[in-house]
Amino acid sequence: MFATLFSAALQGIEAEPVHVEVNSGETGELKFVLVGLPDTAVKESNDRVFSALGNSGFKKPRARTTINLAPGDIRKEGPLYDLPIALGILAATDQLKVDRLAGFLIAGELSLSGATRPVRGALAMARLARRLGMRGVILPPQSAAEAALVEGIEVYAVDSLDRAFRFLNGEIPLAPEHPMPPAAPQDDSAGDFSEIKGQHALRRAVEVAVAGGHNLIMIGPPGSGKSMIAKRIPTIMPAPALDESLEVLGIHSAAGQTLAGDAAAVFGRRPVRAPHHTISDVGLLGGGTIPGPGEISLAHHGVLFLDELPEFKRSALEVLRQPLEDGSVTISRSAGKVTLPCCFMLVAAMNPCPCGYLGDTKHECRCSPVQIQRYRARISGPLLDRIDIHIEAPALSIGELRSETPGEPSATIRDRVQAARDRQQGRFAGTRVTANARMTHAQIRSHCAIDSSLGDLLQQAMEQLSLSARAYDRILKVARTIADLAASERIEPAHLLEAIQYRSLDRNLFY
């Protein structure tokens, strides 16, 4: 007997439809044949499925059985086909009526006992089912919780093969899962900006960067507070909108994280990723046999913090150039090509030299000019050109360290940042742009207009610092953000001068 049911294959962060075709009762030796470009995990499903069928009280096939996962040109990976294969076998062996499977998209891993386990990409599967106009989605409970966040499709949670069978057979009713977004967990480990001693210029630069979504690099000796401030950046960022949270959750779901695990920590808040400097190009950019999200995509709508920037491999840093410009990355492999979103704010930190004490009045630098030049050359000019704000983090004095006066708290800074972001959202209403850092050239001309005197001032700075045309646009974007923080409709001279100041390190430190 022949049975067909629907499942899905994950391609990047999107799902593609897969037909699971089961034909049982074929002549020949008793054998389980699985075709359709499966990977090792899919090929091993026959052992899991047969054990699950037996331990759940169902009859196993007594004749040759062929399973086809169509289309055959899409590689299938992971154990998500266990549940649809098992249900297909039950239908093909006349234990379940075939018409009961119609209209459902089914996915789930099976344990040997028949219990279901979560799968990757549940959010993408629910979106696929809605797009195809299907009746509903059947998933393990942990995966169903996130899939239920997609409106317009019914999601049913089944904790075992037996429960899925009885539901489809009409023996037990199941209510669709209700979308219940988890509350953003309280994370006190990030600390508060009030704990930061001194560093007023650095605090200001961070506020400007967060208000406009600008990329930022902090340069200073060890112990000046660079990492401490970077860790507290999430505490001054505005909360993401619901659609942004769903985008982030979809990426993390495709990476194998569910609402019952790590993904719960990012829902309702902006993700912060801080990979170690030993990370590979693929780990940062994304990829694999079937391309999946890397750190830059996992930081979508959030922060990517690269500490000790020059210690990262040159090749890993250079792959950031195009994603920083476009907010997306296209990965091509033999198995296919996928485009992943990666609209993130880059925050980087580094020392001024290998020993870290160049320019420090209290410590003597032990580095030779050649060592310093080689150290700085690890960061290319084109990459630095894409970082909007460069700010020095000088060493703190003993008096500043001993000060008992608390700094400005994160909540106060966040209120100013939120007000600036609200102005930007009103300005860019009806477009895909959400922050000043993502303005197009046409929007820069429209919203960052300056008079001739300010134009002359900017031209003088460009000539003295030998800045590129890209730096010209970025200065105007930062100036627009500074004006937004000041609730100013126009870019004033003070705003432009502050924005130019944030590019001065191009010349002083790297050339």
Description of the structure:
The chain has 511 residues and is an alpha/beta fold. The protein is built from 22 helices and 18 strands. The strands form 6 sheets. It has a 5-stranded parallel beta sheet. It has a 4-stranded mixed beta sheet with strand order 1-2-4-3. A 3-stranded parallel beta sheet has the order 5-8-9. Helices cover 38% and strands 17% of the residues. The protein has 2 domains: 2-168, 2-Layer Sandwich (Ribosomal Protein S5, domain 2); 188-409 and 418-435, P-loop containing nucleotide triphosphate hydrolases (Rossmann fold). The mean pLDDT is 89. The termini are far apart. The chain has helices spanning 40-43, 45-55, 82-92, 122-131, 141-147, 161-168, 200-212, 226-232, 242-254, 281-285, 295-298, 314-318, 321-326, 369-376, 381-385, 398-402, 410-427, 441-447, 452-465, 469-485, 493-501, 505-510, and strands at 2-11, 14-26, 32-35, 64-70, 104-106, 109-110, 116-117, 136-139, 154-157, 216-219, 272-273, 286-287, 292-293, 303-306, 328-333, 336-341, 345-350, 389-392.
